[in-house]
Request: fold
Amino acid sequence: MSRAEVLDGPGAGLPVAAPAPVAFARLLRSELRLVLGRRRNLVLLAGLALVPVVIGTVLLVTRDSALSGQGPAFLAQVTGNGLFLVVAALFLCLPFLLPLCIGIASGDAVAGEASAGTLRYLLVVPVPRTRLLLVKALAALTFAAAAVLAVAVTGLLVGAAFFGVQDVVLLSGSTVPVGEGVVRVAGIVAYVGLSLTGLVAVGLFFSTLTEVPVGAMAATVVVAVVSTVLDSLPQLSAIHPGLLTHHWFDFAEFLRVQVDWGVVGSGLAVQAAWVAVFGSLAWARFTTADVTS
Amino acid sequence: MTSTHDADGDLAVRTAGLTKRFRSGQVAVDGLDLAVPRGAVYGFLGPNGSGKTTTIRMLLGLAHPTAGRAWLLGSPMPDAAARVLPRVGALVEGPAFHPYLSGRANLARLDAGDATADPRTSRRRADAALDRVGLSAAATKPYRQYSLGMKQRLGLAAALLQPRDLLVLDEPTNGLDPQGTREVRHLVRELADGGATVLVSSHLLAEIEQVCTHVGIMSRGRLLLQGERAALTEREAARLAVTTRAGQADAAAEVLRGLGLADVARDGRALPGGAGTARLTAALGPTPPEKVSAALVHAGVDLVGLEVDRPSLEQVFVELTGEGFDVAR
Ligand SMILES: Nc1ncnc2c1ncn2[C@@H]1O[C@H](COP(=O)(O)OP(=O)(O)OP(=O)(O)O)[C@@H](O)[C@H]1O
Ligand SMILES: [Mg+2]
Reply:
């Protein structure tokens, strides 16, 4: 709607709409306050933040015992360098905990409003449907970013406090200085965050299909789990490159001497494709569906 | 923009053949032609499940009609939603808000979505709306802790956040105590006095009957009748009761039929006039009562009494829909 569009019809003092970007920003602020202020979401973030604390504590306690050094990749390195707690915690959260939290937030985005009945009142305000969907998508993405950061930041703090921060030993065994190591870990955090955007789009789409938020949440998590299962079947290797979760663990690329940007780029391209497909589906569905809740 | 069509420029709400068939195959709204004049208080009546809420959803662009069209304030819906809806306050199938936000925060949330709302006046308008529905004292209470009537009031407050030209209120008195119901009637009258058009749906006729200037009656998705309230309860549906000497009942019935009155019947009830009298009833139709009495007298019938029974809106309604309001209660 253009800036100075004045409504036709009789009567004085007809409402004039603010420019679309201004109206968008105002609604987005309200939405972010709602999503990030919601107790359930804060509990989820707190739960995620607890993961590095638990891992760090376990590693600290068992540091000098026979159990030290066991476990999945990155874990063994944590006691030598607190920076690796960020990587280890993300590695452990990525298969299930992060998809779960993101499925909850994005599956709830539209379905939650529909089930509460607030959707119909937003639409008659009127909030244009495309604007509402965009705001919901941005808020869900913000929550996903907050989820990843909750793990990363507490990982960094706990790791630094428990084990200190040293020069980073890469996968090949060569060492880079702390400064570069931090940049590389930041790259991992960013890659993990961007890797989850496809799942956010899937959740948003499911969220437009139903008035039952739990259904949309569960379906979203199931998509992530099924993708992982399919990814583990060698018979299906032909479709593996396109799977939602196939490239998730390519974040390890940032720990090679020479980061292969082709690998990073293709991982992000797959996410972009999922976002494009499911974002479009969500838009097509939401802008045409009857709101009968 | 020249969206004000000549034909419906004076109609706040108009629909043409509005139809909604759900995927279940059920036709919830069937060829509806609503006409709500500007400035009217339009009572949109109908028993449970008659299609009132479904109609309102289509008017507001929440649901798409299977067929037919709708105009609000002269502009086609849902195409003109962004322009028209800021001037429309609505309550659709009960209030709905975020349970953990306070009443005031919920209003702020809705206001944040309104591109035509001035953020600087948001708080003041929210407080004024809360005050108007008597919720000021509960403004900071979480919605979750509101009573049913308080929730309904908050829904009304949301509809009053901005000055409105049209209010679409679906069952606004639902859950309110008698005092609250009176207040809603008062509010509706006040809004209408301020120049707004009010479309108010209800299955509880008595609650809104007194404030309506116009009435539309729905049943099974069809609009059985609409028009000015006074006209509906006028002559058309009025019944005539004639009391004569018992022996002249047949002659009187003959006269009534001769006048073209329908539904002539002998009323078997005990009569105040005693055993010597008989009572006949008939649908008066457009015939003036004085013409009936003249014809009876002319035919030599001794007229003991003649009454014209103008039905209440409720009687009209029950006659039309065949369903009592008891169903709704
Ligand atoms: N989403 C839907 N899917 C299928 N049928 C529906 C849907 N919503 C409503 N209906 C049906 O449409 C008919 C009209 O419903 P509607 O809610 O419009 O009635 P109403 O007049 O508002 O009733 P009430 O006075 O009880 O509020 C009902 O028979 C209902 O079962
Ligand atoms: Mg209804």
Q: What stands out?
A: The pocket of magnesium ion (ligand 2) is lined by residues B 52-53, 93, 170-171 (CB under 6 Å). Chain A is about 65% helix and 0% strand.
